Amino acid sequence: MRTVDAVVIGAGPNGLVGANALVDAGWDVLVLEAQPDVGGAVRTAEVTAPGFRNDLFSAFYPLAAASPLVRGLHLEDHGLTWVRAPDVLAHALDDGRTAVLRDRPEDTAAGLEAWGAGDGDAWLAMAAHWRRLRDPLLDALFTPVPPVRALARVLRRTGATGALDLARLATLPVRRLADENFRGEGGGLLLAGNAMHADIPPDAAGSGLFGWLLAMLGQDVGFPVPQGGAGELAQALARRVAAGTGEVRTGERVTSVEVRDGRAVAVRTAGGERVAVRRAVLADVTAPALYGGLVDARHLPERLLRDVARFQWDHPTFKMNWALDRPIPWRSPDARGAGTVHLGVDLDGFVDVAADLSTGRVPEHPFLLVGQMTTADPTRSPAGTESVWAYTHLPHGMTWDEATAADEERRVEEAIERTAPGFRDTVLARHRQTPDDLMAADANLHHGSINGGTANLHQQLVFRPTVGLGRPETPVRGLYLASASAHPGGGVHGAPGWNAARVALKESGALGSARARVVQSVWGRVLRDEAR
Q1: Mean pLDDT of 75-98
Q2: For the whole model, what pTM was predicted?
Q3: Which domains occur in the chain, in start order?
C-alpha cells in the first residue's frame, strides 16, 4: 500500500492546477486519471484525417490567459506556447453582415460604428470600464467565497456609486445590456454570443455579466490557443507536476474515497489498489459523482444528499469536427480572420434558441460556435487547409441513435452553409461527437454538459454546487471539491483546483486544523437549519 500527502482525483485542468499548487508547497502528490490521457476536456487528437489536429472538447482559452493562477505557473517553461488568430471573434449573419471583435478596441469600435452611430464610443467606454476593474475583478472571480480583499479593491476603484452600477451589471440580462448601450445590432451580437457560451438565457439575470466578461477578455487577451492543440496545455501542466514532487498516472479510475472518523484517509481504484493520504484528497469530479458516489452516503448529511439530487446540469452539447481542403468560404470576408465565429441566429434568434432549449425542443436553426483552428494556429493542419469544429447546445433528455445524430449534423452543416455557401464542398472528412460520446470520453461531461452544472444565478456563489458555503471544503475533513461544480464554475482557468489546494494547505497545520473544524461546524449548522 502506498501513502502520499495528497491524492488528486482527475487530471483535468482543475485537478492539474491544484496538484501543481500542492507540489509547489513540497507535498508528495499522486494524480489519478481514469482516461488513458491527461486533460479531461482539454485534449487533442487526429480524428478526421491524417495531419489534422482536432481539439476534442474546449479550444480557446481567454480565461486561462487572463488567470493569474495559470500565468503564475509559468507553463512556457514546460513547453506551452500561446498563439492567436488575426481577429478574436466574429458573429456572421446569414445575409453576410458580420460584427467583429478585433485585436484592438479602437478597431472593434470602428466596425461597430457602421452598425449604429455612437456604438463605437459605447464599446470604448465598456473597454475602459473593464481596464479600471480588471485585476481586482479577476481576483474576486478566482478567489473562494467571500473574496473580501478583492472586493475591497474593487470598491476602492469604483466608489459606492460605481459598485452599485457593477452590482446592477451582475444581474442585467444581456439583451437589456445591449439595448442600453448600442443603437445597432452589432454590439449586441458580440455580447449575446459570448453570453451563450454559458447556459444562461439572453433575457435572464446574469447573462449580461457573462457576455461582458468574455467580450472584454477577448478584447484584452484575445481568445488564444495552445500551439499544437489544446492538449498541449494539459501536457504542460502534467509535466510541471512530474518535474516537482508529484506523479500523474493515467488509466487509473478511483472508485471510492475511504472515510474514517469523519476524515478522508485513502482512495481505492478500480484495479484494487488502496492509496492512503496523510493530508488531503482533491476531487476533480462533479458534485453528484462525489457526494453519494465516491463518498458513501452514510458519511454525508441527508440534506446535502437531497440538495445534490436536484443539482441542475447545463444543456448538453453536440459537436462536429471537420478536415477541410481549404478555408471556409464565408459570404463575408470579415469572418475569415476570426479564430471563433458565432452564427446561425440574430439577436431575436438567441431568444428563440433559449426558449427551445427551455421547453425541450430541438432548435431547427441552432446557434453555433465555430472554431477555425488553422486560422488561429497554422500547425493544426497542412498548408492551405483548415481544421474546424462547431458545437451547439441541445435540450435535456434526448435519446441518441444514428438517425438523431445525423439529423443534428444536418442542421449544423446547413447553418454553416447559409453563412458560407459551398462549405460542404470543402469537407475532406468529418467526425461527430454526441452528448453521449462526450460523456464516454470524460465522465465529468455528464450527458454532454460541459460547464460542470448550470451557470444560472441559483447555482452560483454560495449556491454552488448546493446551498452552503460556496467553498471547496466538504462535510468530510481533508476532502475538497476541485471541479467546475465548485465556485467559480466552468471554463478553463484552474480556479476550483487552485482554491481547493490553497485551502488544503492552510488546513494542514495546527491552526488550519482548528479552522477546518470551524468550517465543518458551519457546514453542519447550514445543513441542519435547512432541514428544519
Answers
A1: 98
A2: 0.93
A3: 2-34+251-312+451-531 (3.50.50.60), 42-65+82-103+222-226+315-448 (3.90.660), 104-219 (no CATH)
